[in-house]
Amino acid sequence: MAEMTVDLVAVERKIWSGQASFVSAQTTEGQIGIMAGHEPLLGQLVEGGTVTIVPTEGERIVAAVHGGFFSVTADTVRVLAESADLAGEVDVDAARKVLSDTNASEEQLRAAQGQVRAVEATVTD
After folding, report:
1. How high is the mean pLDDT of the chain?
2. pLDDT grade, residue 104 (50/70/90)?
3. Distances in whole angstroms, Cα of residue 44 to Cα of each of 11, 34, 49, 89
4. Residue 82 has pLDDT above 80, yes or no
5. CA 67 from chain center: how many Å?
6. Where does it mainly reside (predicted)?
7. What is the largest CA-CA distance in the chain?
8. Quick check: 24 and 51 in contact, CB under 8 A?
């Protein structure tokens, strides 16, 4: 199976880097799936969205991403998020608490929604 180099980077740290066969991201234009050999493109990530990476070795990676961009060439995908949390790092109880907080800001709500979606994506698949 064809593979590509994938980097998932947030402003504060590199989240993941390696070889993958598939990347899926929520963009302002809708959900998009990328495989090796894809046409070059630049996309804007949605606030509170998710990115899924299927590595060539190891378990699938799901991250909640909060804004940013991704860049695609025939053999690379670079996800540059304002912030990102791997699903395994999310405190889902805290995220759900934010979702039920009537005083939470729009930004806090979107981030919490993305975190819950990321965790749920790892459970349902």
Report:
1. 90
2. confident
3. 15, 14, 11, 24
4. yes
5. 10
6. membrane
7. 48
8. yes
